[in-house]
Amino acid sequence: xxxxxxxxxxRADAARNRKLLLDAAAELVRxxxxxxxxxxxxxKHAGVGKGTVFRRFGNRAGLMxxxxxxxxxxxxxxxxxxxxxxxxxxxxLDRLLAYGRARLSFTEIEGDVLRAATxxxxxxxxxPYQLTKTHVSILLQQAGAPxxxxxxxxxxxxxxxxxxxxHQIRVLGFTLQQVGDNxxxxxxxxxxxxxx
Length: 196
What we know:
- It contains 9 helices and no strands.
- By secondary structure, it is mainly alpha-helical.
- It folds into 2 domains: 1-58, Arc Repressor Mutant, subunit A, CATH 1.10.10; 83-195, no CATH class.
């Protein structure tokens, strides 16, 4: 038996342990920030041995990536199955703009985890990024955007990168609203006026 992504099915006890560890890590991130979360702290908070955390996630980056994946699945569910304008049923441009706003909101909430998890060089080939890129690519195609859609999708996703958004908010002093407004203006420049 396999999961939808082709990987092996997780045993019930392994799934419970994974959830226990991710819940402990998420609570520590909320309380202390991602930079302060260690494998030791997660193990202690979850009431397991440190080896269990390492076996499950490999290293701290793997743990942060798993937290990102869990949160990203929630966002994916919203844009794949949720109500419009983020979910199906709205015009492509409205959905694309709603996606950007949702991604920015997600970044503000999970920003430290996103930044810590996305420091991995293989992030652009991983499933969450590829699914997100596919979603944005489809909306760009449906909206009639000209040019190389794959490159255009990467270009529109880059300003939504967690590390950049956190820098813009925390260091440069912009608000999330300003960052979102700028992203929307960029999208509107890319999508033909006829689709708007």
